[in-house]
Amino acid sequence: MSEHIVSPKIYLVIFLTLMAGTGITVWAAFNNFGVFNIVIALAIASFKATLVVLYFMHARYSPKRTQLVIVCSVFWLAILLALTLTDYTTRPREGRLTPTAASHLFRV
Amino acid sequence: MHRTGELYGQFQTLEQQKESATLGMWVFLVTEVLFFGGLFMAYTINRHAFSTAFGAGSNTLDIRLGGFNTVVLIMSSLTMAMAVWSAQVGKKKLVSLFLIATLGLGTVFLGVKVIEYKQKFDHHLVPGHGFDMRYRTQNPAPTDDPREIATEKEELDKAFAADPYINAHGQLYFSLYFGMTGLHALHMIVGAGLLVWLIKGSFSGRFTPQYNTPVEIVGLYWHFVDIVWIYLFPLLYLIDRHR
User: Fold this and answer.
1) Residue of B89, B137, B83, B126 whose CA lies nearest to B105
2) B75 lies in which domain range?
3) Residue A56 DSSP one-character state
4) Distance between CA B1 and CA B8 in Å, rounded?
5) Which residue, A48, B135, B183, B205, is most buried by CB atoms nearer than 10 A?
6) Does B2 fall in a domain?
């Protein structure tokens, strides 16, 4: 077998980095960075997710075609998000769900 | 089907078989990415449209329980990765041990989730007829910290001033909260079932350095569920914590 075995030491380092990332996310959430709040939260989450994919899921040591499939998933997700947002962010104001319209939809 | 030991007839070597299985699992995970992606899309649009309600809803979640669960789940990913390693180097006892640890941590996660859901039912924060964002501050339990209730009341008054329809928009937040964490929990339950199957196999010494594909594949699934939570935690719990 020529498969790559990731050592426990690497797993432990990744685990500790993920823990630190969780701590930083919580710390950042209690501080106001204005419009960057969501950017910081998503950047840290994506960094953590990348570490999990590369090391815990062995993507770094996988064959090229497996890596291609992984990249594709991100690409397709980007299409889903980007093309939907081109619709929602360019709708005229009156086309949006107004409070009056909402009150007809959700009666509390 | 023709089968020699763990090697199925259509493959030439165990390595080739493992590569094919891994690729197949990844293709499945791509569909999962898009499945959860649709929910994240719905979340993004509604959070953008009703940010006040989403902020107020997010602040009702218990950050200590959510943070604890994040730590538990990342830890379970570590033990899962260690189970794969143990199988690869042929430490059969450790495989069982790490798989049981992963199952244990997964169960703890689900248990904490039950506590969180119960709180939401108690506080009338489940979308439907009885939904009321103000219920908790108007009917505090004797065990509640009065200062915490006062802070929450002040925040809610501000939120109601900014968005008079917050009880309608808050239901959108909680629908997404229950939908997304519920589907995540469902994936955990499926994962727990798979782990029980792996633990059974590990007791009979099925996983060796030559053949450990099931451990690797379930590992991929488990780590994926972990990744979903890595995004859910900041997006649901940490929207508006900076006061």
Assistant:
1) B83
2) 14-237
3) I
4) 7
5) A48
6) no
Q: Is A51 in CB contact (< 8 Å) with chain B?
A: no
Phi, psi of B3 (to 5 degrees): -150, 130
Q: How far is CA B191 from CA B97, B102, B136, B162, B223, in A?
A: 17, 10, 35, 42, 10
C-beta separation of B46 from A97 below 8 A: no
pTM equals 0.91
Residue B125 belongs to a domain with what CATH number?
1.20.120.80
Domains in chain B, number: 1
A34-84 per-position pLDDT tens digit: 889 999 999 999 999 999 999 999 999 999 999 999 999 999 999 999 999
List of residues 6+ apart from B241 with CB closer than 8 A: A29, A30, B58, B59, B63
Q: CB-based contact (8 Å) between A81 and chain B?
A: yes
| Residue B168 to residue A102, Cβ atoms within 8 A | yes
- Chain B hits for A66, CB-CB cut-off 8 Å, are 19, 22-23, 26
What the block records as the tokens of B140 is 């505090």
Nearest to B184 by CA among B119, B228, B231, B125: B228
Identify whether the C-beta of residue B194 lies closer than 8 Å to the C-beta of residue B221.
Answer: yes
B73 within some domain:
yes
Tokens linked to B186? 């469902």
CA gap B102, B1 in Å, rounded: 33
